[in-house]
Every structure is written in structure tokens, then in C-alpha cells.
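Convert to structure. Protein one:
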Amino acid sequence: MTPWWKKAVVYQVYPKSFQDSNGDGIGDLKGITFRLDYLKKLGIDAIWLSPVYQSPQVDNGYDISDYEAIDPQYGTMADMDKLISEAKKRGIRIVMDLVVNHTSDQHKWFIEARKSKDNPYRDYYIWRDPVDGHEPNELKSAFSGSAWKLDEKTGQYYLHFFADQQPDLNWKNPILRQKIYDMMNFWIDKGIGGFRMDVIELIGKDPDKLIRENGLMLHPYLQEMNKKTFGSKNLMTVGETWNSTPKIAEEYSDPGRHELSMV
């Protein structure tokens, strides 16, 4: 059977500027639900929904402080459930933006991790000691400057490939990986149509070897994710992979490798 997504028309909704339902000047989930008949008329099969999770909004919602809560400016989880169900009635699937390379520094994991070097959450993130009183190495943030930020309280640097307020997650930690899979299954159980995976090529990073994208463990992590979450479901998964060659793109999307639908 041909997967539905091979013939699907996907429409991106940037919620903040799409449709405001309550007159506060910010688009919201109720606004998207209100426009579903219009979207159906356009002939779309799926909505890629830019992030609506709880967030301080340092990076337009790509800095997530709670993966299982909706940011109040967009509405409530009840609004999200209604959007999913009303879209489904019209044959439209909701594809969530999945941001698992990093979190917000306001996420409870990082708040805990900062407390001490022996905190149980410390290893959810990537910490290094100073080298000669400076950053551990020359890795750069995509948002300019060093990818290392000194945490004054513990005297160690944490890695952030984007804003200072977006600490990178440590995918080498199996407990962290399982937490992420549990969160993905939380959304899958709500009936979403899949995930668009933000900067997913960075999860196999090896900062000590100055490797950002396409690290040694990237594909094994994706295969594990596939097995523990969406692999047996009829979902669409799209990887954001800026640094893929055609050969690497084939590896991600080869059905026999059990990774992603496409990049």
C-alpha cells in the first residue's frame, strides 16, 4: 500500500500570524480550527504546524519549556485536541514540529541540571570544564559567537548550537532518549499525522571532536526512535537536514533502514 504522504499536499501554518480568534493580535489554535473548511477547499491533506508548545518565545517557539503543554498565547490542550479531531473529520492530518536537539533553559530538565554537577538531570545536557579559563573549544553557535555558555554557579560550560537560552540535549544519555520517545508517543496517541523534525541532523553531535551534524550515532538514534515511536504507525516524518548530500538523504529515507519518510 502506498503511504498516504507520498501523494499528500502539506500546508505549513505559522500559528502566530495565521488567524486570531480572540482579538489579541496573535494567531491561535481556535483560529486555525475556524479556517479548516477553507484549508479543505484548497485541497490540502496535512498541516505542518510550527511550534505551539509552551515556550518563552526566544526563538519563535523553538525553545520549548514544556513539550506536553500548549503555550497560553495559542490556547489550551483542549483547543489542540479539538483542532486534531476537527481536522481529521475533514481528512486533514496535523503534523507537529518536533524540536529535540535542544530545549529552552526554562525547561524543568535544565532548571534541575543547573543546580549542581551531581543533579540527576545534569547528564540530560552537555557540560564541559573550561580549558585554560576559556571555552572548551572553538565550536560556534548558528546564532553567532561561541556554542559554549559559562554557567557561573557550577563553573562549567554548556553547549548551545542556537541561542544561549537553547541548551543542547545529550542524546548519548539513554534515559533522556526514552523521555523524548515517551513525549513523542504522547502526541502520537493524540492522533497526530507525524513530525517535522527540526535540525534533526544535530542529535548525533560529538562536540569534543568538533562534529555538529551527521555524527556517528545519528542514524542509530533515528532507527531507535523509529522503533520506539512512529515506526509501526502510518505517519509522515520529515527531517530538517541542511547538510545532507544526496547519498545521506537516501540513507534517511530508505524504507529498509527504518528511519524517516523524507528529508
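Protein two, convert as well:
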Amino acid sequence: MTISDPQAFPFHETDELILEPEFEELRANRPMCPVRLAHGEPAWLVTRYEDVKTVLGDPRFSRAEAVSRDEPRTRYHRGLSGNILAFDPPEHTRLRRVVAKAFTARRVEQLRVRAQAVADGLVDAMTVRGAPADLVADFALPLPVTVICELLGVPLEDRTRFRLWSDALLSTTRFRPEEVERYADELSAYMAGLVAERRKETRDDLLGVMVAARDEEDRLSEDELVAMGVSVLVAGHETTASQIPNFVYTLLEHPGELSRLRADLDLVPQAVEELMRFVPLGSGGIARYALEDVELSGGVVRAGEPVVASNASANRDTAVYTCPEKLDLTRQEASHVGFGHGPHHCLGAQLARMELQVALRTLLERLPGLRLAGTAEDLVWKAGAGVKGLQKMLVTWDAA
């Protein structure tokens, strides 16, 4: 192990949408920085766009190796041995192929009408109750939860339960390790029960498709089937639910860009991409482990060493983006890595894009003058979570 004198990472315990200033210096002068992860393991942190893409996409870096390390965010995988996030190709490719058709651009566009109806219904309820409203509880969370529940075939009335389970599985320090394991067991048992129901009664939902793949084509083991359902349920709503209020807050902090978007709502798809680049959802993801020596721009990663790739830092790389610290909804530069890169590129990226587009357009069309109810000091931010975001965001708007 050549990683010496590591500094604590994350650099600051900030839960707000701030990319720590250290990243700018690291990209310029120390693109491979020795860090000590929250669970104690030394690792390399890479911050440049091309290095991040290499670590995420090069088969010489393994995600599966993380499961054997003492990383809290992978610990629950040990009781959920079929989790797609714990595999490298070709096993990962086989698992991903089972559900990939549910998330194609064509299939997602078919879901847009339903997502729009859900969004309109949520705004209708907000306007009936009147301002202020909690954008998180009243809109940002129920929109993607409803869509993913219907797509997967999970009863919507159980959303309070799996919301707790999701929070635990995605936490960094908010839950104790034994709590994470207990909630993972509960969610696995819950999903196994839904699988058993599909075997008794075939249904035309994604869980039914996965059960058929297990029983008819024998492409999924029992553990893989349950774990895939858990992964789709958790990942299918969490990031989008966080990014909707994150995006609104960021736009409110940039009134010029917000005015530009309000004047031309056809910019919404492009705005979503720029906001995905600009908003730092997290400082760094789960480590990859080098299977052999690999040279990056900052030096050589030796076989067996862990590397954390910071997507948020890569999205601010001046070698790729002009004035990356500026929010520019008309930006036409390289693709961001907000949804990741390589084999583990977000399976539901197209679904998330569609939901974010529907959410932004609906809020700006239906709630004129949307703004914070109170000040920034009144916002409640998540703490000890794997993704940054708002836990409570009170908003108001102009009367029609």
C-alpha cells in the first residue's frame, strides 16, 4: 500500500449544496490525493474529469471488491448478496439486462403522461391547501415514489415503510451499522413477500417481469431477484426526490437563470442537464479497487488500492467546462457525469431525467412566483446521508 499521510474525507461535514473549495486546488495540483474515508480506510481521491471516467469505466477498477471492505454503504450488501451494485461485468451485465428494457428512452416517454398526471395532482392539492407548502413532502418525494411503485408493482400505501428502509440503506452516519442491517433484512423480507405474490398471480409490472426471468428463463437467482427489486425501489426514487428541491433551491439562488427559464420553458430539458452538472449531490461515491497497476494523471494506482471518484468535482473541471462554477442553462459542452459513467451508469437515468423535466416545468407553470417561504435559514437539510438535499423546504407562490 502506497497511500500515506491521508487527510480526512469528506473534507467538511456540510449537508448543503456546496462543493468543498479543496476540490479546485486538488484538480489543479493534486489530482490523486490520499484521503482517509469515513470508515477509516485509506484511499486515493481523483477529481479530474478524465480520471473520474477512467475509474468508473475501466474494467481494471472493480466495484465488487468494495463489498469485502468495511464500507458502511456496502455493508448491507452482505445480507443482500444478489445486489446489482455489488457486481462487475459480466455478472453485472447479465443482471442489468433483465430490467434494462423498462428504462429505455421509449418506455420512459410512455411513462411521461402518467408522471405528468401525478405532478398535476400534487400541485392541485398544494394549491387547494394553500401556501406555504413543503416542497419535499408535498411534491418532490411523492412524485418519483408513485411512479416507481407503479412501475415496479409495489403498493403505494407502504411508502412510509420503505422510505425509512431507503434512508437507512443510503445513510453514511445517520444510522448505526446494526440498524442498517436490520432495516435491510426487513426490506428484503418485504420484497420476498411481493415476489411470492407474483408467483401466485402473474402481473404486468417490472417485478412480474423479473419473476418470469427467474422462473421461466432462469436468469436470476432468488437472492438476485429480491436484491434487484430492492435496488430498483430504492434507487428509483431517492436521487430524484432529492434533486427536485435541490434544483428549485439552486434556481432561486440564481434569479437570472430562473428568469431565463421562466421565459422559455422549452429550455427545461437542457436546464435539467446543466443542473445535474452543477449541483453537487455528493462529494464522492463508493470506492473502486484497482485489479492491477493503473496510471492516472496524478500517478499510478497500485493493484489492490481503493480509489474514490468525485463526480461532482469532475463536473467542475476547467479542462472540460468554461466557467464551470457558473450555472448556465444554455451550456453546450461535454456530457456531465452526474449519473455516473461506465457499467454502473445509472440504470434509471432516463426515468430520472423525465421526472425532473416534468417536475420543473409543472412547478414553474402552475406556481407563479414560486419562492421560499421564509429565509434560507429556515431550510432543513439532510444529515448523515449519502446524498445531499433538503429534508424540508417551505415554499410559497403568487395567488392565481
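Residues 61 and 290 are 5 Å apart (CA to CA). Confidence is low (pLDDT under 50) at residues 75-79.
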